[in-house]
Amino acid sequence: MSTSTEAHIGLAAASADADVISVASALGFLGFFCLAAAVVWGIATAVGPWAGRIDPDAVQLGHLAWAVAGLTFVGGHVVAHTLRPEEAFSWPEALVPFARGGITVATGVLGLLVLVIAATSFVVRTRIGVQWWTAVHRAAYAGFALMALHVVLAADEVAGLTWVGVAAMGVMAAVSVLSVLRWRRAAHREHAIAAGNWGLDP
Ligand code: HEM
Ligand code: HEM
């Protein structure tokens, strides 16, 4: 095979990889924005009610919908990286921190693991009790922070200050402010809303 044919094949493969990476990137940003919304709706769930002005059930449902959508998009982001034609991630590389890609990828892997634990702990809430479940679920703040660091380190859109990158940083700033405000104000009642609608008797 001539050198120029090899170069052509190399370029075609690199551009096939780039196509899959751009799908992965879109899914990653969709996942990021949905999970940011899940944190905001989660905070609203914890600090409500709002003197009857907003339906707490709708807020809880919103929280669940954003969380499920966000985790699904991020699942797609990871699957896309395992399907890259040239430099595919193996599943251990995609799911074990520091298996590939250093701190940039590891923050994404760790963030996702923490968020999945925070979300799935809901299934065992009655077995571990509401106090423990709440503590485990609050790890979602740390999971979100790790995920945000991954986006800052990995995204060309953030480095290049495109509108998506700037929007992502704005959302990170807004979620940070809301999280600080939430921690300065105790949950309005000991899990009253959760107890009523999620089978979490305190
Ligand atoms: C998919 C399953 C999930 C369920 C069923 C669920 C359910 C809940 C419930 C019932 C609360 C209110 C707790 C209370 O009243 O004290 C809550 C709070 C919260 N959730 Fe989720 N959640 C899920 C996933 C997530 C995910 C993926 C995130 C992060 C992106 C998240 C972030 C939060 C946050 C930040 C709070 C506020 C915690 C606090 O400050 O006390 N949740 N969630
Ligand atoms: C918390 C969940 C995650 C979110 C929200 C997320 C989101 C993102 C975003 C927005 C980018 C920037 C895309 C670009 O500018 O091209 C990115 C890059 C990247 N992510 Fe994630 N990610 C997450 C978890 C993971 C995991 C678990 C892996 C493991 C395979 C991973 C692997 C990568 C890689 C390799 C890149 C760099 C791609 C490139 O070369 O441009 N991410 N991620």
Give me the secondary-structure topology:
Layout: H1 3-47, H2 56-82, H3 91-95, H4 102-120, H5 125-128, H6 130-137, H7 139-154, H8 156-159, H9 163-184, H10 192-197
The structure holds protoporphyrin IX containing FE (HEM) (2 copies).
One protoporphyrin IX containing FE binds at residues 35, 38-39, 42-43, 45-46, 63-64, 67-68, 71, 115, 118-119, 122, 134, 137-138, 140-141, 144, 182, 187, 191, 193-194, 198.
What does this structure look like?
- It is a single chain.
- By secondary structure, the chain is an all-alpha fold.
- It has one domain (3-195).
- It has helices spanning 3-47, 56-82, 91-95, 102-120, 125-128, 130-137, 139-154, 156-159, 163-184, 192-197.
- α1 (3-47) runs antiparallel to α2 (56-82), α1 packs antiparallel against α7 (139-154) and α7 packs antiparallel against α9 (163-184).
- The radius of gyration is 20 Å and the shape is globular.
- The structure holds protoporphyrin IX containing FE (2 copies).
- One protoporphyrin IX containing FE binds at residues 35, 38-39, 42-43, 45-46, 63-64, 67-68, 71, 115, 118-119, 122, 134, 137-138, 140-141, 144, 182, 187, 191, 193-194, 198.
- The site of one protoporphyrin IX containing FE has 25 residues, from α1, α2, α4, α7 and α8.
Helical segment count: 10
Terminal residue distance: 72 Å
Element string (H = helix, E = strand):
HHHHHHHHHH
Query: Which percent bin holds the helix content?
Result: over 70%
Mean pLDDT metric:
87
Uncertain runs: 189-197
Query: How many domains, as an integer?
Result: 1
Give the amount of beta strand, in percent.
Answer: under 5%
